[in-house]
Amino acid sequence: MKKQTYFQTFYARRNMIQELFLAFFTSIASYPKLLLEVFIRKNFGTRYINMASIITVLIIFAWSPAITYQVGQFTGHARSFWGAYATWYVFLAAFLVMAVIRWRETHLAPAAERWERFSLSNGDIASFFYKLPFLKGAPSTRAVQTFYEPALFFLIGLLFRFCGQPVGTLLMVCSIIYALAYVSAYQKGDDFLRNHLDDMRCNQDVHDFLTKRPRPNQSGNVPIFFETPDDPNMCQKVADRIELNDDDDPNTVAL
């Protein structure tokens, strides 16, 4: 059974707007990310890239121009279909080729290698992103995933957009979703780590408050919202209890 810690009781509030934001980009980012990742990453996990996902991406984005073209005809802004969307289908063809290559290197790798790799791995980042000539040093992985990788496709999309090719808009939109998806992932990771660190700090400060009275007056102490028992032995027992793991049995080892 889990214990309700001091941090969870007083400080673990949910940010509903942030959670909705993270959930939204997590739910829509899978296919736009895959559309770009096959060009710049390799060695995906076996459950990250599969034929079902590849075919789904192709169907979705192959049908999109037909819908857009019909809307353009209805509004009187349509032009030659192939004049507008030839580059779109060339890009999808390139995606199919690269996706099959990535699928083969993942699923046809030796069994030992496949089982050793994290099955949901999003692939290895291309080394050239860490050797960008206009930077003084290597960027962090976070910067590469949230900015430099999507920026590459955004700039390519911008070039196509200036040439009047709708595929440019596709690349720009997918690159923005790509960036926001990784921003969201890092935000969730930061919150996960900070929650654990703050939980540890709260437990330590509550322990010190119970056993070291008066508590040292240090900046950054966790505010304590309770009065201590007068009995020092009782305070020590409570402090010892706080030091235990979340499990009722202190000897239990999580696997």
Concise description?
The protein has 255 residues and is mainly alpha-helical. It has nine helices and two strands.
How does this model look, in words?
- The chain folds into two domains: about 10-30 and about 140-245, no CATH class; about 40-125.
- It is built from nine helices and two strands, in the order αααβαααβααα.
- The protein has helices at about 5-10, 15-30, 30-40, 50-75, 80-105, 110-115, 140-160, 165-210, 230-245, and strands spanning about 40, 125.
- The protein has a two-stranded antiparallel sheet with strand order 1-2.
- It starts with 5 loop residues before the first helix and ends in a 12-residue tail after the last helix.
Assess the beta-strand content as a share of residues. under 5%
Portion of residues in helices? Answer: 55-70%
Distance between the termini: 16 Å
Question: Strand order of the main beta sheet, please?
Answer: 1-2
Rounded radius of gyration (Å): 26 Å
Structural class designation: mainly alpha
Q: Strand tally, please? A: 2
Helix-strand string = HHHEHHHEHHH
Q: Return residue spans where pLDDT drops below 50 for at least 5 consecutive residues.
A: 245-255
How many helices does DSSP assign?
Answer: 9
Taken together, the total number of domains comes to 2
The profile of the biggest β sheet is: 2 strands, antiparallel
- Mean pLDDT across the residues is 82
Task: Based on Cα principal axes, name the global outline.
Answer: elongated
